[in-house]
Specification:
Helices cover 47% and strands 13% of the residues. The protein has helices spanning 24-31, 52-60, 77-80, 98-101, 104-125, 144-152, 157-173, 175-194; strands at residues 2-5, 9-13, 39-43, 64-69, 85-88, 137-138. The protein has a 6-stranded mixed β-sheet with strand order 1-2-3-4-5-6. The longest helix has 22 residues, at 104-125.
Amino acid sequence: MNITKKTNYVIIDGIDDFSFIPGLIGELKNTGSDEGVYAIVFNVCREFSLTSVQKEKLLELPYITVLYSSDFSGMSLENMMFFDIRMSERPFLPQSSESETADMARFEMLFGRKRTYEFKNSACSGEPSADGYGIVKVVPENGYEAYMDRLFKEKSESQTDIITKALISFRQRGKQACSDEESAGFYNLIKERAGE
């Protein structure tokens, strides 16, 4: 496992498994890689599994979590959905069994009814979607770098905090919590700018 610190995020690659997740925050602090970090990009190159403890710890991470792979073919949608953002160089084609075994309630919460319907139909037909059903952002090789730069570009620390807290609250508590967090954050930002 290799940790590379960028301006506002960390890239972790060389991942054999996710056994490091429970101690990740401590590892980042020990290496000084946690300073000014709002997101973690997990660069995987093959199928992986997550234990219940690892899933719980992923959901608790105080960072935006990004899962990147050149190709998600054959990877478990169930495990992929424990990350806030998923990116790949190739369109994602779910396996037909995924529409039966994946947590469709969580899927619908994240992507809406229309995407859930499209996903189920696609899983049965075997046809990939050009936009990854909203599940996977299709990007060029190492496209996560441009995405992360755009996400944080020209944003103050307060704005970046708002984005991060909103995405984390969405992961942990759902759409309404995300909306509430975002509204409160922007209200506080307006007060801050007005000098109140």
